[in-house]
Specification:
Elements: E1 4-8, H1 13-20, E2 27-32, H2 38-45, E3 50-52, H3 61-75, E4 79-82, H4 91-96, E5 101-105, H5 117-124, E6 128-135, E7 145-152, H6 159-182, E8 186-188, E9 194-196, H7 202-206, E10 213-214
Parallel strand pairs: 1-2, 1-4, 2-3, 4-5
Antiparallel strand pairs: 5-6, 6-7, 7-10, 8-9
Bound molecules: 5-O-phosphono-beta-D-ribofuranosylamine.
Length: 215
């Protein structure tokens, strides 16, 4: 097992951030459940293989997941990174990849799960929000936390303002967490607790966010 498979559904800005951070050679394939999305064009720019599995062609969620797993297993990756993949995965699928599948979510989980994380944060008048990289479990937007980064929520923030601020953080924290996993500096025993080793290179990887990312 080696390399990464990235699952996307759209824009692919996190995929682009992984590539800018030097991870493109490790990405074996980008799989999208939608054709013609920007993320696929980004993969092609970096000469990464792409594959589309259109979920509308399947009768059930289970059938789609079986096809997705067949494709992923053919690639034999050590890591599956969800990056804006807008499909709920079946418990069977998630179990099959236990401790090998991660996601990024635009909030400080367990607060603000779901698709409206940024607007919920603005609407709740919290003072900070952020992004969370976590292992994927059967419960959506739950699962053992690998790293969390914090950004301020300002009184006059629009949803777009906060989304933009969180997205810039995502683009640093997700490649950071992936590099730590590939370097075997993330230890997860399928419990809720994830231990991440620190090292001198972390400051460089996190840049301006150093001190605002917890792991
Ligand atoms: C990001 O905000 C990510 O946290 C969430 O979906 C969005 C994907 O954006 N899971 P992109 O496709 O990577 O630009």
């Amino acid at each position: 097992m080696s390399g990464i498979v990235v699952l996307i559904s759209g824009r692919g800005s996190n995929l682009a951030a992984m590539c800018r951070a030097g991870l493109a050679p490790q990405i074996k394939c980008v799989i999208s459940n939608k054709a013609d999305v920007r993320g696929l064009a980004i993969a092609k720019q970096y000469d990464i293989r792409t594959h589309v599995i259109d979920h509308t062609k399947f009768e059930s969620r289970k059938d789609f997941d079986i096809e997705l797993a067949k494709t992923i297993d053919g690639l034999n990756p050590s890591l599956i990174a969800l990056a804006g993949f807008m499909r709920i995965l079946t418990p069977e699928f998630v179990r099959h990849y236990a401790s090998r599948i991660i996601n990024i979510h635009p909030s400080l989980l367990p607060s603000f799960t779901g698709a409206e994380a940024q607007s919920s944060a603005v609407g709740s008048h919290v003072k900070v929000s952020g992004a969370t990289v976590h292992y994927v479990t059967a419960e959506v937007d739950h699962g053992p936390i690998i790293a969390q980064g914090v950004v301020p929520v300002k009184g006059d923030d629009s949803i777009e303002d906060l989304s933009t601020r969180i997205l810039a953080l995502e683009h640093v924290i997700y490649p950071f967490a992936i590099k730590k996993i590939l370097a075997k500096q993330v230890h997860h025993q399928q419990s809720e607790v994830v231990i991440v080793d620190t090292d001198e290179g972390d400051e460089d990887l996190l840049g301006d966010y150093f001190g605002y990312v917890y792991y």
